[in-house]
Amino acid sequence: MARDVRAAACAIMKFKAALRKYTLMEGGDMIMDPGEKVHVIERRAFPEDVRRHFIGEVVRCTAEAIRLRGHAWVFDKVKGSFVRMPEKRERIVYPDNRLVINIIPREVNLDDVKYIQQPQRLVVTDGKKFSLEITEFSAAR
After folding, report:
1. Burial class (CB in 10 A: 0-12, 13-18, 19+), 100
2. What distance lies between CA 46 and its chain's CA centroid?
3. Single pTM value for the model
4. How far apart, in Å, do the first and last CA atoms of the chain sit?
5. Which of 43, 58, 62, 94 lies at a 20 to 30 A Cα distance from 33?
6. How many other CB atoms sit within 10 Å of the CB of residue 70?
7. What is the mean pLDDT of each run of 10 residues along the chain (141 residues)?
């Protein structure tokens, strides 16, 4: 019985790895390149989980993981808005159904990016040409 469970778990892990590889590969080429800029939303598993986002630049991308350099953003319940963590960090993300990865145009200066709360809308913008409405990914507060 334990051997069957281990075999099933191993098969599931291999399937998930193959699925990640299929998702990140497009005709044998990586779907993301170093230097690309991204906005990552980590979906919450439970309503009380911290709302986390990450805005950064792709450092390296493999078929199974993406290494990013940038800033974490967390939702401050007291302020009612997303706050950028001051320290720059590198994060490795493993694309799956809990992550939403939005591409930011290369010409955007990530230091200028901020969150703006508008009536019934949450927008990520650099205050110039780039604007990304992320209301569709946010749960009602």
Report:
1. middle
2. 17
3. 0.74
4. 45
5. 43
6. 24
7. 62 56 51 91 83 94 91 90 94 88 94 89 91 69 41
